[in-house]
Amino acid sequence: MLEARLEQADLLKKVVDAIKDLVQDCNFDCNDSGIALQAMDNSHVALVSMMLKAESFSPYRCDRNVALGVNLTSLTKVLRAAQNEDILTLKAEDVPDVLNLVFESSKSDRLSEYDLKLMDIDQEHLGIPDTEYAATITMPSPEFRRICVDLMALSESVSIEASKDGVKFTCAGDIGQGAVTLRSHTDVDKPANNVDIELSEPVSLTFSLKYLVNFCKAAGLSDTVKLCLSNEVPLLVEYGLATSSYLRFYLAPKIGDEE
Amino acid sequence: MAKTRGRLSKRSEEAKIENTPASSKQKSQLSTEVTNPPQLFILPENLSTEARILQLENPRHSTDSSYIVCPERGIFELTKVATTRTTPRSWLLSSESKNSSKLEKVSSPSDSTKNDEKADKFSDDGYVLRNANLMVATPIDPLFFLLPALDSKAASKDSDKQTKLFLSAEDYLERLSAASSDINPLLRVESLRASLEGRMASVCDTVEAGDEMMYRLSENKMLTELLKKARKMAKQGLTPSMEEKFVKKALEVPTLTIAAEDIVEEEDTNPASSGASTPHTDSQSINASTDSATSSFSEASTAATSFSESTATIKPAKGAISAPEGVADLLRLRTALSFICSKYLSPQLSETIKSLASSATTGTDFAPLDKHLEQLAEQRQEALAARSLGDISRKRGFEDDDDIDGRAEKKRKKDEEDKRKKAGESRGVQQLKKVNVSGMKKMSDFFKKT
Question: Which helix (H) or strand (E) holds B125?
């Protein structure tokens, strides 16, 4: 029996919205520590990893480890029926056929209940080791989204160069080229606007902008985003959530074949 | 409570309207519908004043159903003859003196009973009964109520035969009253109690302990008793629908040629169907959608379904039948027996009876029937095989057309599948498919599988 109550449906809505444009079907793996998700896109060049810790829910109960195979488009359809402020409860049996979602509106005493049919999804699970990244950049998530969207107008890929001077996003396309540079910056009034660069060695990597723009759909979940880069390893884009829950995206760098 | 009134001239039974206090006096116009409308009953004659409609445990479904229990005349089961939803009907009840020709079921005011003034109300103005449901009371052997109590397997869930003990009639009746508490006061009536004990003795091994008789259910005696009933039912002739479905169909000989369908041989062993045209009381549920008073409609249909399943036979090719002497009668007997089992016995008991009947330890030997049915099944299989062979040879000429059709069909199916797949994909996922991923390694190159 799984029972997880979220104070605000908002969180799940945004998480699913962010993932649904990357993967089609995926398993929500529920155990006593929380609800986790790991899935790759169709081309297997990007990976999303989500962890909603048990502390994010009140209460959280999971008697047995259970994998809820869900089509994210379908889940989105159901979640659309929830208001952002609704209290959301996820329920499932130990061997479930359906995922039961209950939305309660505290204001209007409205209670809606949906059953989503589950599916069996055969997914390979990858072990992601803790990595010491050469560069870790923390910046406001809207800023990162803006850079990606702006640069995508010019090109399909962006090269990210992190040096002690700052981080430079550059791209070159048919109509010309563009570059955005951010320097370390501390905003005392609004810590969310800080740009923080930790660097052990300079890094320069190229990534597909379409994927990055896709990751940026999670910008609503968190004020800040953390980019972690090392040569020859996938870029990590992390959106931190409350109670050390997180939504992480990994993207393989483009190697050679410069356009 | 059940009181009788108003004798019918046409029938030996009496029709009666149980009036409820809610019904108001009828005007010439139709008055508003009453919440608890009266019901129309056909009740047996000369019920004693002690007779009551009681909720007893249905021996088949072990749920409560309505029965009329009369200390003198025994137990009557109430069967509801209902109209189907698709052809709704209503009753118009009025006095015999005015409209006797128009109506079949009439409550006549001429026989004065204490309920006369109520009858007058209906006869003067007529009464429209919205639901044309008719409750028919037919005698039922009290034995059927005793069997669940007697069957210790059902009572104690002990499958071991050794544990069956001899018990006094008192003990069994206690079990019975535990299942249907309504019967308690009537068990004290000597006549009813005596008849119950008599029926008990007919299916039990008995021993005398002191001045008391002890009983234990004997399965062979039970089978003999039920066979006796089945034989009687078969002798009177099964209802036409049963005869058609379970006897004629089952004995049909499959034919190989289409021309043979037209030749209808007379079935010499078939008794005159006139005997079967009057519905046997026990088998009414086959003809009409019937039910006992309170058990739900679905239950009755389940009973009917399970019955048809239990004796279901392979649908044979068309053709007439001729079976060896006696086989048809045996089949009729078996059909009657399985009908009784499926209508009045608990599922466990009917299983026991079925296995006992097939082992043929009793006087009736079903072996010739089984043998004949086996032969028929074989013939049918052959006919079917021959038929399908013929079908294939006929199809060969159209192969090319089929191929084209098949391909078009395949394509359409594939398109549909694609469409369905796309419906499960978000726009984002579809757009990512177009992304140039050259030079990007797979995730599994970086992270190891677990």
Answer: helix B116-125
The model's pTM is: 0.45
Place of tokens 């037209």: B262
3-state secondary structure of B398: helix
Q: Which residues contact B157 (CB under 8 A, 6 or more apart)?
A: none
Cis peptide before B109 (omega within 30 of 0): no
Beta-sheet strands, E only, within A76-202: 87-92, 98-105, 110-117, 126-127, 135-140, 157-163, 166-173, 176-182, 196-199
Closest alpha carbon to A254 in B435, B437, B446: B437
Alpha carbon distance B343, B229 (integer Å): 13
CA–CA distance, A103 with A90 (Å, rounded to integer): 9
Nearest Cα to Cα of residue A114 among A77, A140, A139 = A77
- What backbone phi and psi angles, to 5 degrees, belong to B303? -60, -45
- Per-residue pLDDT reduced to its tens digit, A205-226: 999 999 999 999 999 999 999 9
How big is chain A, counted in residues?
259
Rank A34-38, B61-65, B233-237, B311-315 by mean pLDDT and report only the highest. Answer: A34-38
Q: Do B440 and A254 touch (CB under 8 A)?
A: yes
B390 to A218, B259, B398: CA distances (angstroms)? 66, 15, 14
Q: Which residue of B has its CA nearest to A255?
A: B439
- Interface contact B443-A44, CB threshold 8 A: yes
Beta partners for residue B139, in sequence order: B76
CA-to-CA separations, A62 to A16, A30, B379, in angstroms, rounded: 21, 7, 60
CB distance from B419 to chain A under 8 Å?
no
How many A/B residue pairs have CB atoms within 8 Å?
99
Q: Is there a contact between B82 and B133 (Cβ–Cβ < 8 Å)? A: yes
End-to-end CA distance of chain B: 76
Closest by CA position to A202, among listed A161, A254, A160: A161
Bridge partners, residue A135, by sequence = A199, A229
Average pLDDT over all residues of chain B: 68
Which residues numbered 170-229 in B keep a CB inside 8 Å of some CB on A? none
Both structure tokens of B228: 């006796």
User: Beta-strand (E) ranges in B2-83?
Assistant: 14-18, 39-43, 52-57, 64-70, 74-81
CA distance A50 to A42: 18
Nearest Cα to A89, choosing from B136, B377, A97, A78? A78
